[in-house]
Amino acid sequence: QPTRDAGDRGLALTPGMPALNRFPLNAWLRAQERALKRAGPMALAYGDPLGEPALREAIAQYLRVARGVRCEAGQVVVTEGSQGALSLCVRLFANPGERAWLEDPGYGGVRAAFHAGDMKIRSMPVDEEGILIAERAWRSPPRLIHVTPSHQYPTGAVLSLARRLALIARAREHGCWIIEDDYDSDFRHHGHPIPAMQGLVPDAPVLYVGTFSKTLFPGLRIGFLVLPSSVGEGAGRALSELLRGGHRLEQLALAEFMAGGQFARHLGRMKRLYRERQQALRAALQAQLPEFGISGGDSGLHLTLRLPPDCPDTAVSTAARAAGMNVGALSSFSAGPAQAGNNGLVIGYGNTSHEQYAALIRRLAGIVRRVRRDQSVAG
């Protein structure tokens, strides 16, 4: 995986890392002060296991407007990042031994959550329209299907509307739950915003997962799960047993931050910044490595550079890390042997200013040429 430890995550070109030096710390401190004054010493106590009501209301309101999610505050569960939400999906909606499908290449955290639930995992390939499920696969349908439809991680593909609707219909037919992981769709760079799958049809069998790690900062460790309205009070009672209401001050501060308009303003600034950085990164890649294709870029915080078979991405990634660049090897996101075409570099632009790209990509291009030359000699 591209982010091995805290030291690596501070390197240039780290995928998924936002611009931490652009976060409005003073506004955040003021939100914390207001939250502490309102709550008093009780801000230090355990809170609601499902999350602070003010934050759940703020999240629901934002999702309805920005993502087209059909939800009320009572359906929102605040979690320990998106990983906590994924784990909850497994614990609430699946039993050990049941099947789960995930994208390949895909996010390693969901594989870990499925393994922890002792589920039988099957990988599904991804093409330029997102997850590709063969008709014969439905002969043994799963209990859970994890997808990143708005910006596939890590290829950047966008799941087409036809596939979204077909997946919802087949999941409903077979009694499956779709986990829609909407990890960075707030940063849409081209075209109109893509509404969430969850809101495409009434009562869709979708468990909607989101996080503030990309929009704000990863150390906040606040994510959320939107439960279907059909689940009812039974899930609430189960969650009260499973969860403990922690990080109360951070949750109350985030609710203040959102209610006061600071979240929307910060998001607007970051959308413009990341669009500029992505354009600069794309230009640098096209200038230094014009023979290689670039995928992704409609959304998010990374681009994927496709490499030919004679240039193993793991060798390039290792050498790049030693040179101060934390680019990910695309093949490392596959569970088993990488499929044809899954050889490339996952290159982040959120945490790296556009003035650095020319020098960084020139250095990266030198590494790519050296690896290809070494492979040619070895072959």
Task: Please describe what this structure looks like.
- With 379 residues, this protein is α/β, with parallel strands linked by helices.
- The protein has helices at 6-9, 25-39, 53-66, 81-93, 108-116, 161-174, 233-242, 248-259, 262-288, 313-322, 357-378, and strands at residues 76-79, 99-104, 120-127, 130-131, 144-147, 177-181, 206-211, 223-226, 294-295, 302-306, 328-329, 344-348.
- It is built from 11 helices and 12 strands.
- Strands 1-8-7-6-5-2-3-4 form an 8-stranded mixed beta sheet, with helices on both faces. It has a 4-stranded antiparallel beta sheet with strand order 9-10-12-11, with helices on one face.
- The radius of gyration is 21 Å and the shape is globular.
Short description:
The chain has 379 residues and is an alpha/beta fold.
Question: Strand order of the main beta sheet, please?
Answer: 1-8-7-6-5-2-3-4
Number of helices: 11
Distance between the termini: 27 Å
Mean pLDDT level: 92
Radius of gyration: 21 Å
Q: Please state the structural category.
A: alpha/beta
- In the predicted model, the low-confidence regions spanning at least 5 consecutive residues are 1-6
Which range does the strand content fall in?
A: 5-15%
Note the main sheet: 8 strands, mixed
Share of helical residues: 25-40%
